[in-house]
## 1
Amino acid sequence: MDGTTPRHVAIIMDGNGRWAKARGLPRVEGHKAGAETVRRAMRAAKKFGVRYLTLYAFSVENWSRPPAEVRALMRLLRFTLRRTEKEFHENKVRLRVMGRRSDLPASLDKVLSDMEAATARYDEGQLILCLSYGGRTEIAAAARSLAEDAAAGRLDPATVDEAALASRLYLPDVPDPDLIVRTSGEERLSNFLLWQAAYAEFHFTPVAWPDFGEADFKAALDAYAKRQRRFGGL
Ligand code: IPE
Ligand code: IPE
Ligand code: MG
């Protein structure tokens, strides 16, 4: 890996529904095709030397979708994880989850917990799945946890600074994303990594997630390599 390869790429996997609609298929077919793309993206991350790959799979707001679509997505997630498990072991990649865990169906939560435990010691890379994730939810939970400690006398409020808040986020040890990619033409964060995105570079592509291939991943990395990051300095 050279200095121009992002250490951490986070992707807003968008456009499954529109991809399906354009083909006269039900939305869930788009999600199925999108699940295949997840495996492709994992392989691309490994090939190009990206150590952390975060995927926005389901937002807290996505619970407002029709129950049948939500159920299909949860089933598909479980199925895709099982089918991909071998690759985590072969590539020594650690699976991690961020989001409001208690919202997830028990059957999915179990697969996630098992795979997190089985891959916990791998250090060739991390695949971070955002499930029932909301940036505001995450920050509010961090603030609540600080407030609880302060109320219990375990924490001096005067010591609460950026590092203190960051330490209460879901995965405090994971470095901030260097590059955030969103597929399918939308150019918004949709409540993704609000805190962590402070100095991320952005890459938007019109390609729908089910069509996002290795060449599109490479194009995002090439665009990133041309950016000049300044972090407020000169
Ligand atoms: C992304 O595709 C997957 C999820 C948000 C779960 P969408 O389902 O949002 O697809 P569009 O945006 O409606 O095309
Ligand atoms: C963002 O996509 C969430 C995920 C990709 C999981 P949405 O499709 O839910 O976002 P909006 O509604 O277009 O902003
Ligand atoms: Mg969408």
## 2
Amino acid sequence: MQLADKVAVITGAASGIGKDIAKVFIAEGAKVAIADLNLDAANATAAEFDPSGDRAIGVAMDVTREDQVDAGIETVAAKFGGIDILVSNAGIQIVAPVDQFKFDDWKKLLAIHLDGAFLTTRACLKHMYAGRGGSVIYMGSVHSKEASPLKAPYVTAKHGLIGLAKVVAKEGAKHNVRANVICPGFVRTPLVDKQIPEQAKELGISEDDVVRTVMLKETVDGEFTTVDDVARTALFLAAFPTNALTGQSIVVSHGWFMQ
Ligand code: NAD
């Protein structure tokens, strides 16, 4: 059990990558708060992975809302007795060329990825600094390092998370808090399934060609990254015991991006 008795908050954990991280963390002994916009799905995820209700709870949280983040994190800390791990994972994708991008869409995407990361970090650091230290993990992307057409705010936000992680790493060290970023390649989740027809339309190519020539072209093996690939990386970072591994970004992308 690599996370025995650790308390983890995972945002956007009612679906996709966050949901699999919750499964792996619970299996490794952690108590996990599944924080999501969609409370019904968060509660269902908690019940699926921990039918006893002792080690997983669903928490209603829009990560862009300061009041909801602060209240949700307090609820988790009170129920489980502190917070050791934050996985700031909630995210969306909106694709369009920069010259046609709607300002409201730009602001919405940046708010979920960047305001959400800041607000959840601030709320959790209070408990980590007062307690046993901790591990902050941001869900970046290959788009934290690389750009693609049609994804201006996403690429901007994902690059920004690396800056935030480095600051949290420097400020958190004396409190035994580490901060790192996971940068996955394309993973078949609802977020990606939605993009395939949208990109096909924008680029004027077939959905098969979006997968083959846009999403997986640069990988070493033509394979999607899996939720399990990302969850194993999150477990490694969450369980890592010292400040030797902090302020880093780890790319998990079947070789799409090599640094
Ligand atoms: P997903 O759509 O399967 O899950 C996202 C979850 O976030 C959903 O449960 C949704 O309800 C929740 N969410 C959305 N807005 C929220 C908000 N304001 N507050 C709280 N929760 C909110 O997506 P996913 O593919 O699992 O993506 C998870 C993270 O991984 C995102 O940050 C995404 O950018 C990143 N990522 C995904 C891929 C990929 O290929 N799927 C690749 C790299 C990085």
